[in-house]
# Entry
Amino acid sequence: MNFGELIAKGSVLFARKGADALADTLETAPAADLARIQASVSGGGVRPLGAFTSLPVLKAALTATQSGTADTVVLNVGDSTARGVGSGGAGVGQFPAGMSQMIAASCPWVGEAVAENVIGRSGVAIAGYDDRVSEGGWTGVSQTLGGEGWQTASVVADWTYTPKVPVSAADIYYLGSPGAGTYRIKVDGRVYATINCNKTLGLYKQRIYMPLGMHVFSAAWGTTNAYHVGVDAWDGRRKLVRFITAGRTCWRTSNWIAAGSGWSPFNALGVPGSHLIDISLGINDVINGVANATTMANLLSLTQKAQATGADVSLTTPNPISGFDSAMDALKATYISVAASTGAKLVDYYTSVGGRTTGLPAGGMY
# Structure
């Protein structure tokens, strides 16, 4: 089963719930209900008690989007699976695109959902899984949302990003560092902004607008060291549900709670201004033999940090992986426990695709 097939199963699961529920597969997880939730999961699936639309921050945002006054922003905190590494491009099989389709199918009353962005390098040759991006002469630097940013200290070939849909607005993400230089953002060869990276350590964004159309965004060196992180683009004429993925290949939960600088992923969670932060991690912990207690502590810290940004938080159990059945079952239990202790919403994706029994026929995802 490839990732596109897994997304298709999830899409059907979400879409059939109706216009008034973004995802009835969500489960409210107060501590008093933990035994009931565990019994439900062990019985083959999470009962449809909760819904994204019951989350107060997200509900208010979706209402504003429906009325045409503001966008709704959903951020995914994940790994290579969430980023779409191995999906063969930025098409329907990639998780960001798949999630935006699920949202749109589940809430047609809200309007269109879009996932047209590239935030961070994800630690691998990005052209191998996202054909919208060319790194040019820019190279990877410093871990932040989406893996690493890109840097250059001299004139090199431009970094480019070509959205697959017409856009008229974009947030440019970049790193600030005292003494850093500048770079230019071009749209179809015309300079639209000069990004000043000489700031306190941190992840920043700057918004630009352009005529609606199919565009090519470029990052071009300006002065001394420049640090580019990515572009989130959309049709600024309308109010949309914007889904942003910050997945990074091979990252464990420990990578996400690293807070060594102002732009570390842990410290940068609030920059996108998300209304919902969805956390789906743990595969790389399992593969690398990280103790489940450590994973639980890391997930707890990350969930609490995400909640501190003011966003609602959902916890999505990862997909099954071949050869790690017991560990993945334990990881699912960890998600249930963290959801119960924090009040975050639980999305049991692992069970929804059949878990280890039917979710991974011969060939599997890994």
